[in-house]
Design goal:
The strands form two sheets. The chain has a six-stranded parallel sheet, with helices on both faces. Strands 5-4-6 form a three-stranded antiparallel sheet. Helices cover about 35% and strands about 15% of the residues. It has nine helices and nine strands. α1 packs across α9, α4 runs parallel beside α9 and α7 packs parallel to α8. The protein folds into two domains: about 150 residues, Rossmann fold (3-Layer(aba) Sandwich); about 100 residues, SIR2/SIRT2 'Small Domain', CATH 3.30.1600. The N terminus is likely disordered. About 45% of the residues are buried. By secondary structure, it is of the alpha/beta class. The longest helix is centred in the N-terminal third of the chain and has 20 residues.
């Protein structure tokens, strides 16, 4: 549950929170979140301060050769263990409370960790998919990730010896010794499996984007939290809000591509800023 008592904040952030509170009070707003909201849950950010440069596998690479499929599934399996062990932080709970109070109409998230739903948010559009589902690219069968993980562990017991690995925000991990890895196939048709996440170079499903767009269209304002807005899906939604002349509030430590379009930019930690904002709006 989010804190109900105020914490000491930077004076500039305090002033910005005063303005954001006045702007959002009486308005029902949509929320767009990025990787920055999950860093306090132990999931790294692609673009935060100090984040190493990453080159995620593209969808085209994943489909092109068995070596890419092996590398991705080995890394994704180890990364999923970390994701499965992560718990929502106070920022996630703050947004769930804002939805419960009627202040928000839902959350659009670019994250694949499922932490918003774990925190109690009911209307969540997982724009880039979710790590806990697996799809067959041939027949469309959907599998629970846990069942696929059990098969991977049974077929690749040596993978446990990989030890500590670097985890990326999309649930991938860097694994180099993958020649012996056995890739899981669909138990229905034998087709290629893929975690239900949007790869780099892959389009967001049209239905998902329509859901996200509908939340923005039915809102009176847009709150962006923990996203640098570098990914095209986020900036498209921000632009949709701008065209509708919705007030935009951005919470992010560091610059974003949307700062020039925001009515208010709150430069601070996502968790503490959302907790304080929820306290003021409750």
């Amino acid at each position: 549950m989010a804190e109900t008592t105020p914490t000491e904040l930077d004076p500039e952030l305090e002033r910005g929170l005063d303005e954001a509170t006045a702007l959002l009070t009486g308005r029902r707003f949509a929320v767009l979140t990025g990787a920055g909201i999950s860093t306090d849950s132990g999931i790294p950010d692609y673009r935060g301060a100090g984040a190493p440069k990453r080159n995620p596998m593209t969808f085209q690479q994943f489909l092109s050769a068995d070596s890419f499929s092996k590398r991705y599934w080995a890394g994704s399996h180890l990364g999923y263990r970390r994701f499965a062990a992560a718990a929502p932080n106070r920022g996630h709970f703050a947004l769930a409370e804002l939805e419960k109070s009627g202040a928000t109409n839902g959350v659009i998230t670019q994250n694949v960790d499922g932490l918003h739903k774990q925190a109690g948010s009911r209307k969540v559009v997982d724009l880039h998919g979710a790590m806990d589902r697996v799809l067959c690219l041939t027949c469309g069968q959907v599998f629970a990730r846990e069942s696929v993980s059990a098969r991977i562990e049974a077929a690749n017991p040596w993978l446990d010896a990989a030890g500590a690995v670097e985890i990326a925000p999309d649930g991938d991990a860097i694994v180099t010794d993958i020649d012996a890895f056995v890739v899981p196939n669909c138990t229905v048709c034998g087709g290629r499996l893929k975690p239900d996440v949007v790869f780099f170079g892959e389009f967001i499903p049209a239905e998902k984007y329509r859901e996200a767009s509908a939340l923005v269209r039915s809102a009176d304002a847009l709150l962006v939290a923990g996203s640098s807005l570098v990914v095209n899906s986020g900036i498209r939604l921000l632009e949709e809000a701008r065209r509708r002349r919705l007030p935009i509030v951005i919470v992010n430590r560091g610059a974003t591509k949307g700062d020039g379009r925001a009515a208010i930019k709150l430069d601070g930690g996502t968790t503490e800023t959302l907790v304080e904002l929820a306290r003021r709006l409750s």
